[in-house]
Amino acid sequence: MRNFTLSEIAQHNKKDDLWIIIHGKIYDLTTFLPEHPGGQKVILKCAGKDATSAFDSHHPPDMIERFLSPDVCIGQPVMEKSHEDNANIKRQQTETDEEERIQLARKNMPSIDELYNAYDFESVAKTILSDDAWGYISSGTDDEITMRENHSAYHRIWFRPRVMVDVSKIDMTTHMLGQKASLPFYITAAAFCKTAHPNGEMALTRAAGRKDIIQMIPTYASCSFKDIVRARISSNQIQWYQLYVTRDRKATQRIVEEAEAKGMKGLFVTVDTPELGRHLKEMRINNQRDDPSEMETGEGTVSVSSFFDPSLNWSDIAWLKSITKMPILLKGVTRLEDAVLSAQHGLQGVVLSNHGGRQMDFAPSTIEILPEVMGALQREGLDKNFEVYIDGGIRRGSDIFKAIALGAKGVGIGRPFLYAMACYGERGVERLIDLFQAELTMCMRLMGAPTIADIKPDMVDIRNLKDHFVANPTDYLAKYAYERMQPRGKLSKL
Ligand SMILES: Cc1cc2nc3c(=O)[nH]c(=O)nc-3n(C[C@H](O)[C@H](O)[C@H](O)COP(=O)(O)O)c2cc1C
User: What is known about its subunit structure (predicted)?
Assistant: First the structure.
């Protein structure tokens, strides 16, 4: 391996000639730059420099080995005395305003037992997360209409509770993809969980394991896949794998084979990202940090990725089936025809998901389409051995109940677990699981449904579900927790 001095490396700091240092190795990322799923800008910021800490905050250590060709590693840096001194001086520089703000907010955090529902965690997370992290996690696409609608649609479903049922014992155990789980909800996949907490996905694994719920591991995890698997509480802890199919089908195949070998019990292929959605909160934060004028052109600011394969289509299902024996489900279905096609292609199920409102704004809320999806599958005789999952906007035990009543086998929950982890680490995730369980217990008892099998479609009144014009009760908790980020810099003066 060749040695280069830091001044030599610093020369390669342009789009068409771009080196960076990560963990003591130099990588030439010139060709990879346009393909980076997180956009070009973050890499350009580190061009010609040591990017280790920026890299570590989002990626697992083995990310480059797993996803890129070995040729990108071109050498290792050697220190010159003056650079060592500069680096030390930089490290000793005073904390930024933001770090001080976060430290103070952390000091003022309520104790964990003062938090009573998912929104409480979101409210605290809003104060303690960095602008970058809050922007990344809380964002939806464009005007965030779908993101909000995901939850508010649940307000248009009312209950028809039964009485005189023996509800002295409530049993929430269920089966998903043939595996037993204590509770009918799972932690869904979110890329780069270290943005929320330094222990990232491993903290989610441990909390999920202790509470016996399923965790879906993202392709773009920030901990290494091996470490996430090693973090299991027991050898029979259930994990699923979320897959992004990339243009490099061989690399995708290797990832699928590794997932199967490590005991993943389901492969969830994300199908709603031929291009990444525009998350304006994130874009504003990043732009403002650099050069607000770039906002006007939008050049290089959108996390558009050419890494994912936009050509993915129904004819690829045969290939997916040929490379794994894991049950395959499509994640990101938002209309009944695609659910029916999935069943006709012999898949094991779908996740009705609009990516938490992060992809297509004005895609329907997922709970709104659940009844029509179930109806279509039943009409076509495709509802046996085909499981329908749902995620997006689930914030209450009663939301979980409503989704199950309408036919969901299980529900995925995303942001709330990230917020809980950001605030209190694993303990926060466990507390939130307990709170969802407590809410669902109360809901099942008051609804007269002692087991999951007793939760029936006639227990919910969905006559208003399709009516987007009905008045909803104001969701004060959600409203309070929702917005922190106002446009700043030039935009705020408009
Ligand atoms: C920060 C963040 C990152 C995400 N990353 C992924 C991902 O890598 N792959 C994926 O299929 N879905 C991803 N999602 C979507 C979630 O799997 C899920 O569909 C969504 O979060 C559910 O909505 P909720 O956050 O309202 O519960 C992500 C969501 C968030 C909030």
Answer: Homotetramer.
Phi, psi (5° rounding) for residue 50? Answer: -80, 120
Contacts of 300 (CB under 8 A, 6+ apart): 39, 40, 41, 44, 294
Closest listed residue to residue 309, CA positions, set 385, 206, 378, 219? 219
Strands (E), 334-409: 349-352, 387-391
| Distance, CA of 240 to CA of 253 (rounded, Å) | 16
Domains, the chain, ranges and CATH? 2-92 (3.10.120.10), 118-490 (3.20.20.70)
What is the tens place of the pLDDT at every residue in 229-249? 999 999 999 999 999 999 899
Catalytically annotated residues: 244, 272, 355
What's the CA gap between 178 and 88, in Å, rounded? 55
Report the half-sphere exposure of 12 (CA within 13 A, side-chain side): 19
Mutate to test the pocket of ligand 1, among 141, 144, 188 (most ligand atoms within 8 A of CB): 188
List, for residues 26-40, the tens digit of each pLDDT value: 999 998 888 787 778
Strand partners for 187: 215, 413
Tokens 């709603």: give the residue: 272
Phi then psi dihedrals of residue 247, to 5 deg: -60, -30
What are the residues whose beta carbons fall under 8 Å from the beta carbon of 409, sequence distance 6 or more?
174, 176, 184, 349, 387, 388, 389
CA-wise closest residue to 299 among 314, 286, 315, 311 = 286
Q: How far is the CA of 211 from the centre of ligand 1 (A)?
A: 21
Among protein residues, the one with the nearest Cα to ligand 1's atom 2 is: 190
Interatomic CA distance for residues 441 and 155, integer angstroms: 19
**Most confident of the ranges 277-286, 322-331, 482-491:** 322-331
Q: What is the sign of the dihedral through the CA atoms of 242, 195, 295 and 149?
A: positive
Instruction: Could you list the beta-strand ranges (E) of 47-94.
Output: 73-78
Q: Residue 99 corresponds to which tokens in the numbers above?
A: 């770090």
Instruction: Judge contact between 305 and 220, C-beta under 8 A.
Output: no
